[in-house]
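Input for the complex:
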Amino acid sequence: MEIKEKFRELSEEKEGAYMAHIYYGDPNEEFSLSQIETLVKHGADFIEFGIPFSDPTADGAIFQAACERALRNGITPPKCIQGIKKLRENLDVPIIVTTYYNIPYIAGVKAFLSGIKEAGAQGIIVPDVSLEEANPLLDAGREVGIHVIFQVTPLTTEARIRRIAAAASGFLYVVNVEGVTGARESLADSTLKLVNRVRKHSDIPIMAGFGISKKEHAAAVVSAGADGVITGSALGEIYQKNLENPEETLPKIARFARQIKQGCIEGYIRRLNAQNISYEEV
Amino acid sequence: MVKSKRLYEQQRLPDKRGYFGKYGGQFVNEILMPVLIELDENFDRYYPTSEFQEEFHRLQRDYGGRPTPLYYAKNFSKFIGSKVYLKREDLLCGGSHKLNNALGQALLAKKMGKSRLITETSAGQHGFATAMAGRVLGLEVEIFMGIKDIARQASNVKRMKLLGAKITPVKTGAGVLKDAVSDTLREWTSCSRTTHYLMGSTVGPHPFPKIVAAFQSVIGKELKNQILEKEGRLPDAIIACGSGGSNAIGAFSSFIDDNRVRLYFIEGGGGSLDADNSAAAFQLGKPGILHGALMQVLQDEYGQIKSSKTRAAGLNYPGRGPQICYLYDTGRMKVGYAFDEEVFEAVKVMCQTEGLIPALETAHAIAYMLNHKEEFYGDEVIVLNYSGRGDKDLEVITRRFYGD
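Predicted:
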């Protein structure tokens, strides 16, 4: 399913979007496949499909360990692309690939994007590609039909937000805390400000990530104007406690996904109500 | 040859985007972009001012002990068969060239209003230099160090702690420099408003390779004056060890435009020339992106970065800095390597001929000269950048020669 179509569907249903980020192959491919199935069944609208990299400098400890384990257990980019193909046999939600730039660079950027496109992915996030270095990725993405997702942070200046919003397609990934991925107990106020700053420049859908681990976080962020939320390391934390038998954690993962999705729905309704009130006031 | 000279002068590398030819750039998360732009602007604002230059030179001279001597190593020269000078960076306070860059960046950080320095270290020389610079300029210091390196470089760990630096062990990956750099980058994303990442070598995203090269260029400037004074002419060759390349770039800086001076860069050969047992990225690597820059890097067929291996912790990095890569690609600089075994032999030779204990890193350049005497002719003047002293390696060296 195309990204745009998914956002349209969600707004008709009056729901915020939930994207779940995993690293494929941690601790093995079978678990990743059933984890993704579980997540989608229980509320995930998008899958952020991580292709492990040896030096994931924008990831926190949980995902660093995930990458290390997956690589130790023999995962490779071609196996990941096969995994996307397998998922596509009975999975309809958009798949956004995340990996570090050396992986597509070595494969050839266009060849890599063609590969994930053919396998069934809709977009790509490359956290170590700044706007300044993004042209090869953007060119290949346009040619092949893969959306290049950019990130915006509280430190990003107005001028950069404008330029990033102009280059972005699919959606914008708003990083709502100063820091790398890692579950936080409370959301920074800067999230709300940041969503508003982006909105001044673009109507592109906004997904807020980094540090979302609770229903309340998701509700707060969506009610503030984000179109959806991304969870990452909080999921990793659940199954990493039982790496011998990670399947046993699937019920917990299902519950987590339902809660985040519930937050996305509640947040959306809260936002609609707030809008209605302000319309009435007018 | 003349053409190549013009190439360097006209391009004034790096370009605005931080590229040396195809190498370099800013491959970082958006969180770091604003702080890199801020750093670049502030470097260009402060570095050229006479106020900054005076303060920097005063620190280098009165605190660091510059200029370092250029020593004619008569006994060692006999061994080689040509006239060899040692640029004595081992005599800079702290025992290596690292203090040049640490003082410069700490001063810059202070001008920028930062209150804290973070960095990584492997041999401990850069960490120690940062701890010194932080103390003397009143900035808090935290140092990330791989657990393997903490064990290997115990004396430098003690020295850093004595200066009040916080040492944070890095357990991820192989627990070596590559992993420590990753962790320092992660830390920086969470605290860049108040904290400066004091990059230790000519690596990382732009503007770091440019900044570190500028602060290390003092080595080449002094060297040029000293050799002209002693020999009345330029050297025929300059030889330096390296991984990121800061001591080499520093020593080469005043000679890059002059093709009459041959430049040699010696990397860590490790145990043998295979990718799992070496740090020789020019022999075994290919262009790739690591820690913010496009450079020659050890990696597998899929682009996963490999951990380098060498007994010299300071050369144990899988990437070569962008400028070093460019000098190699354009043919301006010759690249060699030395194996661990040869390096220990080189330590012995330097001890016996000149009574100097070189750092294992520095001993790579010495080993290359010993093993390639045919490349240096009898009437030639060669400068070896003697980047550091071997006190930190004493245990490893003595264990190698005398056992436990």
